[in-house]
Amino acid sequence: MDVMDRIQQQVDSAAVVLYMKGTPQFPQCGFSATATKTLASTGIEFAYVNIFEDQEVFQNLPAFADWPTFPQIYFNSELVGGGDIIVEMAKMGTLKGEMEKASEKFDAK
């Protein structure tokens, strides 16, 4: 399976997927730490992919959805954006609701 197919399989595997540097327990950059805390603050489950564990994913993810930076967050296989976007959504009070919708839609598949 080529790397783009693997990335597609990853984003299709959960309602919310976070591509990050490190893990939620041990983030390897401040942006990944902020994204993890922001998503976790909703109480809704999310999956993650440590981009340092797969160099092909690390190198090709920016081209997958034409988003050059990490972290990247996907709801139901669609790119939401980076950490700054979900922080803004949390400040506006929309993040938890959007994650709930993504989870409901994913569960209905």
Automatic annotation (TrEMBL):
CDD domains per record: GRX_PICOT_like
PROSITE patterns linked: GLUTAREDOXIN_2
InterPro entries: Glutaredoxin, GRX_PICOT-like, Monothiol_GRX, Monothiol_GRX-rel, Thioredoxin-like_sf
Keyword Oxidoreductase: no
Record domain Glutaredoxin: where: 16-80
Keywords, in A-Z order: 2Fe-2S, Iron, Iron-sulfur, Metal-binding, Redox-active center
Coiled coil (UniProt feature): none
Domain of life according to the entry: Bacteria
Any one Pfam family match given in the protein's UniProt record, by short name: Glutaredoxin
Secretion signal span: none
Residues noted as binding [2Fe-2S] cluster in the record, renumbered to the chain: C29
An MF annotation (GO) of this entry: metal ion binding
Family membership: Belongs to the glutaredoxin family. Monothiol subfamily.
Name assigned to this protein: Glutaredoxin
Organism: Candidatus Ruthia endofausta
